[in-house]
Design a protein that fits this description.
122 residues; alpha/beta; Cobalt-precorrin-4 Transmethylase, domain 1; three-stranded parallel beta sheet; 4 helices; 3 strands; 33% helix; 12% strand; globular
Length: 122
């Protein structure tokens, strides 16, 4: 899709994956298999030569996925709640020391003007 057709959260996540995938041995994407956004994040990582897996919940992670993994990238689809990210981090910390680093691909500064009907007083 054209850039203007992708929501900010989606394009920011894709940009972040483009930054983290080359430095990662594995990228986990939290999201639904029915989410084109989440599937695209997996695709972006794989196109950069990094193994990637789509998961919906922390309990789907298998410890053997971490064999040979020094650096793991973690992202989530735009509609995945933060609690799922925290659950994945907690599960990973059962097997490894986890050091989190947040990558901000772009700062969202978009301001939308309220419709006139909401700004005019009677």
């Amino acid at each position: 899709p054209k850039a203007e057709d992708i929501c900010y959260a989606t394009s920011n996540r894709q940009a972040a994956v483009k930054q983290i995938a080359p430095a990662s041995d594995l990228v986990l994407v939290i999201g639904s298999p029915a989410s084109s956004n989440s599937l695209r994040l997996v695709e972006v990582a794989e196109r950069l030569g990094t193994n990637a897996r789509l998961i919906q919940r922390a309990d789907e992670i298998e410890p053997e996925w971490l064999d040979g993994v020094g650096t793991l990238g973690l992202t989530a689809g735009a509609s995945a709640p933060e609690i799922l990210v925290r659950e994945v981090v907690d599960r990973l910390s059962q097997w490894r020391d986890v050091h989190e680093q947040t990558i901000a691909a772009a700062e969202e500064k978009m301001v939308f003007k309220l419709p006139r009907q909401l700004t005019e007083s009677d």
